[in-house]
Design brief:
The structure is a single chain. With 597 residues, the chain is α+β, with helices and mostly antiparallel strands. The protein has three domains: 243 residues, 2-Layer Sandwich (BirA Bifunctional Protein, domain 2), CATH 3.30.930; 170 residues; 143 residues, 2-Layer Sandwich (Threonyl-tRNA Synthetase, Chain A, domain 2). 40% of the residues lie in helices and 22% in strands. The strands form four sheets. Strands 1, 2, 3, 4, 5, 6, 7, 8 and 9 form a nine-stranded mixed β-sheet that branches. It has a four-stranded antiparallel β-sheet with strand order 12-13-18-17, covered by helices on one side. α2 links the parallel β1 and β2. α3 runs parallel beside α4, α8 packs across α13 and α14 packs parallel to α16. It is elongated and about 90 Å long.
């Protein structure tokens, strides 16, 4: 280890080091990439800088440094060990066609080993360099520079394209790299050669990666860049753990505070946890911090069934699942969000600004999933009991849990695996693909994101909401569009101004009374003209030729609609408006949620 520094001190020291060497300190970017559809989140510090790595001039100059928030879920199954996190901070410095490979390596070595800076003993550092392949040569310059700095030849490892050639994705800037590792024990593991990349022991922790971006991959081919750049990334939590001589990244500032909060609610100490419980605790810590940063990001999504919102939902729900392993109340886990905000708001003030939104979104998703988990767990247990003696759960059964009850495939796989049962994931994906094709045709007519049970409930609720708005505000209200998913409804309608609190309450009460009356939902077939003559409302009349479906709800609602719907209003549960806002001149938008009674 070297100097004992906490996270905040390490961030400051790193930036000061590179600022003294002519680097402009630039702000970190959003966790949600701007203009890069290839990834859902910023997975590396270089993502926001791709245009400049390709040659576009940067307003701050040719030497840059920053701290970048990153999220990486490709190795989520490793989260809970000593070093892996889904959210992490990356300390980075860049040369845009300025200094080269040798200078980059020398500065990295100075920052890590100099007594003025981090003071990590030289003998604890190992490095890997690119061994070359049939197309590209071995990186002799990097190896020679490390030797000149005093790194012993036996602590320099040559690795191939898979280990020491870095790219953010299948396309874009890339190049050979040199990785820096910390030797945690100094003791060989007994393998023929105990070295980074050559054995599977836990002796080495990668702390820094210097990428020499001299190529760009396009259409599967490598082309040399006109301008050669340097892109480096040092893992903040990993280096802090090294400096504190911690056993894992979960013992550093911030993460340690979250652990203390959760352990306090458990009434246990670290040393009282089993290995399984310790892993569960770490997963809960990691996923809580990641969820808070996603929700606190200026561009952050809400939990959803697609895209970045799905990743957020998966993390929250996975954490709730692991709370059960710990016998920790999920509400206590959720309350730990305040601890995350308190410990990180000085570096990331957006967390404090969005604190209320973070806490509310976590609470709503946690409550929603607890209901799903209770139902799904019982049904899965019944399936496993019914299939006792078999070692495989069918994809159709797993898909039914997902489609009807919102139970994620990942949890089905995990929970079935605990009973020694494998899930037919291939068959699940086939069912999912068939479901998606059906959903596309339905979405074209009804505005639904899918035809899941939850979406059908929300779709039916839009009919009641439409009728309620006309009853409370007047017959001038007309539907202008809707967007319905398994998580919420969004309804656009014509109206001249914001709803008063009394009007909003009246609309909610009108819908809820209709639900509580347990009214039948029925379908008739009619012509568009005849339906309108009976007072039916409907959007996009010009889409309907000949006979149309007309759905009625008791004596309250009659609409031309392509369906689908529930059979009775009591299936909808509790109705709540969560937001009402303008969405254009003379138009308003309502977002609403349903919850079980």
């Amino acid at each position: 280890m070297g100097k004992t520094l906490e996270i905040d001190q390490l961030r400051t020291m790193y930036l000061r080091f590179f600022e003294q060497r002519g680097h402009a300190i630039i702000p970190g970017a959003s966790l949600l990439p701007d203009g890069d559809p290839s990834v859902l989140f910023t997975t590396a510090g270089m993502h926001p800088l791709v245009p400049y790595l390709r040659g576009q001039p940067h307003a701050a100059g040719r030497r840059l440094a920053n701290v970048q928030k990153c999220i990486r879920t490709s190795d989520i199954d490793l989260v809970g060990d000593r070093t892996h996190l889904t959210f992490f901070e990356m300390l980075g410095n860049w040369s845009l066609d300025d200094y080269g490979k040798e200078q980059s390596i020398r500065w990295s070595h100075e920052l890590l080993t100099s007594l003025e800076w981090l003071a990590i003993p030289d003998e604890r550092l190992w490095v890997s360099v690119f061994a070359g392949d049939g197309e590209l040569p071995r990186d002799e310059q990097a190896a020679r520079t490390w030797l000149e700095l005093g790194v012993a030849p036996e602590r320099i490892v040559y690795l191939g394209m898979e280990d020491n050639f870095w790219a953010a994705g299948t396309e874009g800037p890339c190049g050979p790299d040199t990785e820096i590792f910390y030797d945690t024990t100094g003791e060989p593991c007994g393998a023929p050669r105990c070295a980074p990349g050559l054995c599977n022991c836990r002796r080495f922790v990668e702390i820094w990666n210097n990428v020499f971006m001299s190529y760009e991959r396009s259409a599967g081919a490598l082309h040399e860049l006109r301008r050669h750049n340097i892109d480096t990334g040092m893992g903040l939590e990993r280096v802090a753990a090294v400096l504190c001589d911690a056993g894992s990244v979960y013992e550093v500032q911030g993460l340690r505070a979250i652990a203390e909060h959760l352990l306090s609610d458990l009434g246990k100490r670290h040393d009282e946890l089993s290995e399984r419980e310790l892993r569960a605790l770490r997963i809960c810590i990691d996923h809580l911090r990641t969820a808070v940063f996603i929700l606190g990001d200026p561009n952050g999504p809400e939990p959803a069934n697609t895209g970045a919102g799905y990743v957020l939902r998966r993390l929250i729900r996975r954490a709730v699942r692991y709370c059960r392993i710990l016998a920790l109340e999920p509400s206590a886990w959720e309350a730990g969000a305040s601890v995350v905000v308190e410990h990180y708001a000085s570096a990331y003030p957006e967390l404090q600004l969005r604190r209320a939104r973070i806490l509310e979104s976590l609470r709503e998703e946690r409550e929603r999933f607890e209901r799903t988990l209770d139902r799904g767990s019982r049904l899965l247990a019944q399936l496993l009991e019914r299939n006792a003696g078999t070692e495989r759960l069918s994809g159709a059964e797993a898909f039914r849990l997902y489609d009807t009850y919102g139970f994620p495939l990942e949890l089905t796989v995990e929970m079935a695996g605990e009973h020694g049962v494998e899930v037919d994931v291939t068959a699940f994906e086939r069912c999912f693909a068939e479901h998606r094709e059906r959903s596309r045709s339905i979405a074209a007519k009804s505005g639904l994101a899918d035809d899941s049970r939850q979406s059908v409930r929300y779709h039916t609720a839009t009919h009641l909401l439409h009728a309620a708005l006309r009853a409370v505000l007047g017959a001038h209200v007309e539907q202008r569009g809707s967007n319905i998913s398994a998580d919420r409804l969004r309804f656009d309608f014509s109206h001249g101004g914001a709803l008063t609190s009394e009007e909003r309450s009246a609309v909610e009460a009108w819908v809820q009374q209709a639900i509580d009356r347990d009214l039948p939902v029925y379908r008739e077939v009619s012509t568009s003209e005849a339906a309108k003559a009976r007072g039916a409302t409907g959007l996009f009349d010009d889409r309907y030729d000949g006979e149309v479906s007309v759905y009625g709800i008791g004596d309250l609602s009659l609409e031309i609609c392509a369906g689908p719907h529930v059979e009775r209003t009591s299936e909808l549960g509790r109705f709540r408006i969560v937001k009402e806002q303008s969405c254009g001149a003379g138009m308003r938008r309502i977002r609403a949620l349903l919850s079980p009674t």
